[in-house]
Amino acid sequence: MSFPWANTLLLVFLALELVSGFFGLTSGSEDRAIHMQLHRIAGYGILITLLWKTVNVIRSMKWPRSGTARTASITLSVLLIVCLATGIVWSLVGPYSWWIFSGVSWHIYVGAAIVPLLMWHIWYMIRGFPIGFWADRRLFLRTTGAFVVGLVAWQASEGVARAADLSGQHRRFTGSYKARDFSGNDFPRVSWLNDSPQPIDVNTWRLRVFGTVNRELELTYAVLTDKSETTATLDCTGGWHSTQRWSGVALRDVLEELEPSDTARSVIVRSVTGYYRKFSLGAARDFLLATHVTEETLSHGHGYPLRLVAPGRRGFEWVKWVTEIEFSETPHWWQPPLPIQ
After folding, report:
1. How far apart are CA 42 and CA 44, in angstroms?
2. I need a surface site. Which of 123, 161, 205, 310 has the fewest CB within 10 A?
3. Which part of the chain is CATH 3.90.420.10?
4. What's the pTM value of the predicted model, to 2 decimals?
5. pLDDT number for residue 1
6. Which helix (H) or strand (E) segment is 207 a member of?
């Protein structure tokens, strides 16, 4: 072939998969559901293009090629198939797990493993392409056509899930499945990077509030309980969600009492483990520092004595075992998009 159309389409769809998957993973707001919708369309676009690609792969076996290049291409193909399979099964059949991880977690991990091989593959396949190749009308039409077919395939799969009454029809826009609502502490307990501190003595525990504020505070557990209440959905990147009634103190009340200085641009919520997430002052006003969940005192596994409730955010931003709130002069985006600590 003069131009490897199938390879080019795969690269385009894989790039869309990685970008949309990342934003879908880090956003829990329904206003941004478009990220996951694009992720699904691109996934089916890849699946369809792979059928086309198979012919090229069979033909390429006859061509002289370095062992490293062939091995990398085969490895990339295998990982891609596994990534697609884990995602499609999760989306249609329902939640499943293998070893200690959920199916959607495997989908994410395999997708992450594809990235370095994909970068190499992009360089290897396009290093000799003229710039005009990327502006070719036929490439644009083929890409658009494959995208439309992917959209149709995605909608068809959703129709199959409804017609066959598969569990996939009940998943949330993020792809997560319901784990138990309004159940108190009886919902899954997980922690990012397996944080697991020792139980906290509430008699000696204090919430320290400091940073670029006019005055600092140390608050006891007693003054934080049963001040405010909200109903919010905790949507975990592990593939489950649970809606509960949370009660404690509204973070806006803490903001108003402290009167942050004019230079404050963000608020950092930090766990006793050192884990933290940073938010804009505007966003933080909608959050709650919870001591109770659906009329039950938080259990240690769910962050006792205090956890952050961040509606519209994914679970890794709901900091548990909160011990510090720091007002910072740095912007909220000045942090890793996914926690690394």
Report:
1. 5
2. 123
3. 180-328
4. 0.88
5. 41
6. strand 207-211
